[in-house]
Write a structure and sequence with these properties.
disordered C terminus, 5 helices, alpha+beta, 34% helix, 215 residues, Metal Transport, Frataxin, Chain A
Length: 215
């Protein structure tokens, strides 16, 4: 084979190989070398992230509103003792204590282990297994005091409820109330001992005029 023939064959083979190389490289994406070097030096540049700022913590965001709590209890109304005279105090207190003593004696008849003693405005009630309750009048303070083996000592004031600007005078109902939490004395005795004192009936008797028998 002559030299010119060999030369032509070599040139043809070189062109064929070059075309195949270009065909294989076309689908690949060209990445500049400097970009690859920067990515290797700082891998975080390969990822794009966004930070979500919590509401209320950034200067340009509003303060988050607290969740709505449907079980929230509204603030209790401030209770104050009703201004009454000494005569009115003894009238309300004596009728309550008499009604309480009557119910306690009924309970004593039903249970042999219950003991009741009432004298000079002091009622002592022994009620197993709770213990002994002492309920007594306190004329200097116009209060009724309670000593309970379960809930401790409490002082109750006479509070007239419902007699306001839109009610006629004398139309309210009264109760002996513990001003710190608004609970009633009759309510506590009903819950702890089971004694039910009808305050409405007691006060109805209080408002009735006394009728002296004719001589």
């Amino acid at each position: 084979m002559s030299a010119p023939t060999v030369s032509r064959l070599l040139r043809h083979a070189s062109r064929t190989v070059a075309r195949q190389h270009i065909h294989l490289c076309l689908p690949r994406t060209y990445v500049p070398r400097i970009a690859v070097q920067q990515a290797i030096g700082n891998p975080s540049k390969l990822f794009s992230t966004s930070r979500c700022a919590p509401a209320g913590l950034m200067p340009d965001t509003s303060e988050p509103q607290p969740p709505h709590n449907e079980s929230a209890i509204p603030a209790a109304r401030t209770l104050v003792a009703t201004e009454i005279s000494n005569e009115e105090y003894h009238e309300h207190a004596d009728r309550f204590m008499d009604a309480l003593n009557e119910r306690a004696e009924q309970l004593q008849e039903e249970r042999e282990d219950v003991e009741v003693e009432y004298s000079a405005g002091v009622l002592s009630l022994t009620f197993p297994p709770n213990g002994t309750y002492v309920i007594n009048k306190q004329p200097p303070n116009k209060q009724i005091w309670l000593s309970s083996p379960i809930s401790g000592p409490k002082r109750y004031d006479w509070v007239l409820v419902g007699e306001g600007h839109h009610e006629k005078e004398g139309g309210g109902s009264g109760d002996w109330i513990y001003l710190r939490d608004g609970s009633g004395l009759a309510e506590l005795l009903r819950r702890e001992v089971g004694l039910s004192v009808d305050l409405e009936g007691v006060e109805e008797d209080t408002r009735k005029p006394s009728v002296d028998p004719a001589e």
